[in-house]
Amino acid sequence: DAGITQSPRHKVTETGTPVTLRCHQTENHRYMYWYRQDPGHGLRLIHYSYGVKDTDKGEVSDGYSVSRSKTEDFLLTLESATSSQTSVYFCAISEVGDTDTQYFGPGTRLTVL
Amino acid sequence: KQEVTQIPAALSVPEGENLVLNCSFTDSAIYNLQWFRQDPGKGLTSLLLIQSSQREQTSGRLNASLDKSSGRSTLYIAASQPGDSATYLCAGRPFFSGGYNKLIFGAGTRLAVHP
What pLDDT shows up at residue B30? Predict the structure, then answer.
């Protein structure tokens, strides 16, 4: 298995509070991604990173920000959590090349009350 | 805009049955298509990746095909086992996705194989 960890694995928070989720990789892959998974929607890309300090928006980026200060860490921040951000969040990594495969972390289940 | 659809949303079959999971995409300009497996409460595991120039890929009891002209991919599972029970997701990488590995996911097919 690819070396990807996510923390925390579960979190319950209240509306309006800031939340930061962490993704850590040991594979030295260049690309990192944050997805959310909701019933009936599959996985949707929130933000991605193509290098240290290089990030860009995905299709559902409103209300989220990211940072990548080191190759191995990619942080997702909800500045002011809302109930609509209750979801399961997955981090993924990849190298664009022959395999083109994305490797996924175990996920973080976030509940916003 | 690329959209990926998976039918059926759920499937229940007896052990030993051969089965086909379907994935359709609206834009044939895809770079590749991947099939993933997701167990409850877990992340996704890549099963097969088919490049746009390929027609199929095989791994053990799994065979995935790609028909760009019709916008379809199928995942064939031979001699299903209870351990195959999971959600199966397909994801297409649009041809013009910039410099990163952008994936558009279907909502998945939840498979239950009963003894």
Answer: 84
Among B42, B46, B101, the residue with its CB nearest the CB of A106 is: B42
Give pLDDT, residue A2.
Answer: 66
Q: How do B86-94 and B104-105 pair as beta strands?
A: antiparallel
Cis, peptide link before residue A8, omega less than 30° from 0: yes
pLDDT, tens digit (0-9, with 9 covering 90-100), for B69-86: 899 999 999 999 999 999
Q: Which residues pair with A32 in a beta bridge?
A: A49, A93
Nearest to A40 among B43, B103, B107 (CB): B107
The residue among A50 and A99 whose pLDDT is bigger is A50
Put simply, the chain A residues between 54 and 83 with a CB less than 8 A from any chain B CB are none
- With CB atoms and an 8 Å threshold, state whether A42 touches B105: yes
Which residues in chain B touch residue A27, judged by CB atoms under 8 angstroms apart?
none
What is the chain A residue with the closest CA to B9?
A40
* pLDDT at position B73: 96
Tens digits of per-residue pLDDT, A88-105?
Answer: 999 999 886 555 788 999
User: How much helix, strand and coil, in percent to the nearest 5, is found in chain B?
Assistant: 5, 55, 40
User: By the CB < 8 Å criterion, does A2 face chain B?
Assistant: no
Q: For residue A3, report the phi and psi dihedrals to the nearest 5 degrees.
A: -80, 85
Q: Does A97 touch chain B (CB under 8 A)?
A: no
